[in-house]
Specification:
CATH class: Mainly Alpha
Shape: elongated
CATH architecture: Up-down Bundle
Number of strands: 0
Helix content: over 70%
Largest sheet: none
Distance between the termini: 61 Å
Number of helices: 6
CATH topology: Four Helix Bundle (Hemerythrin (Met), subunit A)
Structural class: mainly alpha
Radius of gyration: 16 Å
Number of domains: 1
Length: 154
C-alpha cells in the first residue's frame, strides 16, 4: 500500500504543479474585483498585488483540503492557523467598514473551530468546520464585490 504522501502526489501532482494551479485560480479570483485599499480602484491597476495575496490564501486553503483528504490533522491545523493569521495582514483589509471587520472576525472564529477539530482528530468536525470557513470566504467576497459595484454605480 502506498504512503499517503505518495498517493496524494499521484492525485494532486507535485507541489510545484499545485502552485501553478493555485496561481491560475488566483488570477481568476483577482478578476472578481478585489482591491487592497477599499477604494473603487479597478483591479486592473493592481493585479500583481492581489494575485500574490490570493495565491498565499489559496495555498493555505489547499493545505486544509489536502489534510482533510488524507486525514492529516497537522496539515489541517497548520493551514487553518495560517489562514487565520493571514486574515490579520494589512493586505486582507480591503474595506474599512464595520461589516467587513465583523466578517473577518467570524472568519477567524471559523478557522479556530477548524483548528479545534483538527487537534481533537475529529475528521467529520473538521470537514464541517471547513465548509463553514469556505462559506465565510464566499460571503465576504460577495460583500466586497457588491460594495465595489455600489461604488462604481455612483
Amino acid at each position: 500500500m502506498p504512503s499517503s504522501s505518495r498517493a496524494t502526489t499521484r492525485i494532486l501532482g507535485s507541489r510545484t504543479d499545485r502552485v501553478g494551479v493555485v496561481a491560475g485560480v488566483a488570477a481568476v479570483a483577482a478578476g472578481f474585483g478585489m482591491t487592497l485599499t477599499g477604494t473603487a480602484e479597478p483591479v486592473a491597476q493592481r493585479p500583481d498585488q492581489v494575485a500574490a495575496f490570493m495565491r498565499v490564501k489559496l495555498t493555505h486553503s489547499q493545505d486544509v483540503l489536502e489534510g482533510l483528504a488524507i486525514e492529516d490533522f497537522d496539515l489541517i491545523d497548520k493551514g487553518a492557523q495560517q489562514l487565520s493569521l493571514t486574515s490579520e495582514d494589512a493586505s486582507w483589509q480591503v474595506l474599512q467598514t464595520e461589516d467587513y471587520a465583523r466578517q473577518s472576525a467570524e472568519f477567524r472564529r471559523s478557522c479556530d473551530r477548524l483548528r479545534k477539530a483538527a487537534k481533537a482528530k475529529n475528521l467529520d468536525g473538521a470537514a464541517l468546520a471547513w465548509m463553514e470557513v469556505t462559506m465565510k470566504c464566499v460571503q465576504c467576497h460577495k460583500y466586497v464585490r457588491d460594495r465595489e459595484d455600489d461604488t462604481e454605480d455612483r
